[in-house]
Specification:
A five-stranded mixed beta sheet has the order 4-1-3-2-5, covered by helices on one side. The protein has 99 residues and is α+β, with helices and mostly antiparallel strands. It is built from two helices and five strands; from the N terminus they run βαββαββ.
């Protein structure tokens, strides 16, 4: 799966109307479509957070989706990304919804 561009890992947190609108399910679906691994979960303070790993260009695509698209009923007010780093191997087997 490693492309010449290398693999990237990034954490994210999305704010707005992102709980109770199938945001986690849609994030998982989009990540799998892009061939990415990682996880997504609701937080106790009303946001959604997680981690994305995969080829850098695909990670960037999901970051853009998290910023601007989301699930059909969501309203995204902010998407923050942190702990971005290059990795040599994926640390997850698939893209999971964490309860």
């Amino acid at each position: 799966m490693a492309e010449a561009e290398g693999l990237l890992s990034v954490d994210y947190e999305v704010s707005g109307k992102v709980q109770g609108v199938f945001f986690r399910k849609n994030t998982q679906k989009e990540a799998k479509r892009l061939g990415l691994v990682g996880w997504v979960q609701n937080t106790s303070h009303g946001t959604v957070q997680g981690q994305i790993q995969g080829p850098a260009t695909r990670v960037r695509e999901l970051q853009e989706w998290l910023r601007k698209v989301g699930s059909p009923q969501s309203v995204i007010s902010r998407a923050e990304f942190s702990n971005e780093k290059k990795i040599v191997a994926l640390e997850h087997k698939d893209f999971a919804i964490v309860k």
